[in-house]
Every structure is written in C-alpha cells, then in structure tokens.
Amino acid sequence: MQSAEFAIAVFEFVLLIFSLSVHECSHAWMASRLGDQTARMQGRVTLNPIYHIDVVGTLIIPAIIIFGPFIGFTLFSGILIGWAKPTPVISRNFAKIRRDENMVTLAGPLSNLLLAVIATIVLLIVIHAVPGGRQIVNYTASGMLVPGINSSVQAVVLLGIAAVQINLALLFFNLLPIPPLDGSQLLRNVLPYNAVQTYDRIPFWVSWLLMIFVGGYIMRLLLVPAFGIVGLVLAKG
User: Fold this and answer.
1) Residue 12 near residue 43 (C-beta atoms within 8 A)
2) 3-state class of 53 per DSSP?
3) Which of 50, 95, 125, 159 has a Cα-to-Cα distance from 197 of 20 to 30 A?
4) More confident residue, 77 or 80
5) Is 24 considered catalytic here?
C-alpha cells in the first residue's frame, strides 16, 4: 500500500508542474493575442516548465505537501496548492485595458478547468472502453492500485484522477481574491479608486496568512461539492 501511495504522489507532483505550466502559458498566450507581447518575448508562451518554475511555489511547497506525510510531516497536507512565476503583463498595450486584463487573468484558471474536464472525459472512456474499467477507476480514486491490470491503463487512470483533483484545486485557489492570486486582479478591477489604493497596500505576510487559513477553509468548502459532481458524473456516465 505504501508503494501505491508513493506512486500516486509522484504522479501528483508531475501533474502539478504540468498544470501550473499550462496555467501560466495560458496567461501569456491570451496576453499575446490581445496585443501585449511582453510574456511572448520572454519565452513564456510555452508548456516547458523550465520557463515557469518558481522554486518555492512550484517545487518546495508542493513537495512538502505531497511527500511530507511519508516522513510524518503533515502540517501542510490536505489540499495541494502551488504557483509558478507570474506572467509579465503590460496593460497599456491592450486596446481595452480593464476588459483585456480580466481576459488574461481568467485564461489561467479556465485552462485548469479545461484540463479537469478533459481528464474526466478520459476516465469516462476508460470506464466504458476497458474491461473492468469502472472498478479500476473506483479503486484508484480510493488510493489503491489494482493488481494484475495493464500498467498503461493504470497509469492513465492515475493521471486522470490526479489531473482532476489538482486542476480543480488550482482553479479555486487562483480565484481567491487574495493578492497576488488571479482573483485579486479580478476584484481589483471592480473596486473604486480609493479601495484599490488600500487593497494594493495589503502586506505580503497578510496575504500569506489569508491564503493558508482563510483560503484553505474556502477551498475545502468548494472542493468537496466539486469532487462530488465529478464522482457523480463518473458513476452515472
């Protein structure tokens, strides 16, 4: 069982890095489409993780959350979060600044939603196309590997389940209205001028506390029904 859990953890870590790369690439691609080539000129319109990795947010924090429980460190376990290097955007290059800023901001979270939907479709295909597919998906979702099945099928199911969980978590995490997350930019664009000045002065350490404590609580409230919907789709599909 320990080896199965470790295999799942490795899949989660790799999937998180890929999902973060897709997220930032989507920001950069949308900015380029709307007239700001800053990120494109820095090589950020790519899925290559090398261009997006933030040592702390992409590697260290996720590694602690994912692999910490194997050595008894569970302080930050429970919800997998992470971040990559922010995509550089110069808003004055946009034709309609506020609208285009919002479109660039939303491109990241929506890319994670798209990945979660694609992963759910892949799991549905396995359920219907592979003998015993429903049992394989159910067992894997419970944290167990099914002995005796094709390793390729097991890998696809592991990737699918990890992709759903990670990308839904990234979707909700990034939409939190806490600086410097994507949701903060969306909120900033609807606040009056004086409120924006106050909002921009929120200290970094306050943002950290809000993300860890308030953000973690809100994410649990959102992820439980979201995972329930995915489970219902897989059960009925």
Assistant:
1) no
2) coil
3) 95
4) 80
5) yes
What is the average pLDDT value for the chain, to the nearest integer? 91
CB 76 within 8 A of CB 68: yes
pLDDT in tens, 134-168: 999 998 888 777 788 888 998 899 999 999 999 99
- The yes-or-no verdict on residue 171 having pLDDT over 60 is yes
Chain Cα centroid distance, residue 50: 17
DSSP state of 166: H
Q: CA–CA distance from 64 to each of 41, 80, 97, 216, 235 (Å)?
A: 33, 10, 38, 16, 32
DSSP structure class, residue 49:
G
Mean pLDDT of 48-73: 91
Is 186 within 8 Å of 102 (Cβ atoms)? yes
The encoded tokens of residue 57 equal 């947010």
| d(C-alpha 77, C-alpha 72), whole Å | 10
Distance CA 180, CA 27 (A): 14
Q: Which of 5, 12, 24, 101 is catalytic?
A: 24
CB 227 within 8 A of CB 163: no
| Cis omega (within 30 of 0) for bond into 180 | yes
Helix ranges (H only) for 94-150 are 97-129, 133-141
Q: Which DSSP symbol is given to 94? A: S
Buried b (16+ CB within 10 A) or exposed e, 51-76: bbbbeebbbebbeebbbeeeeeeeeb
CA distance 28 to 118: 21
Domain residue extents for the chain: 2-236
Residue the block writes with tokens 């159910």: 138
C-beta separation of 154 from 145 below 8 A: yes
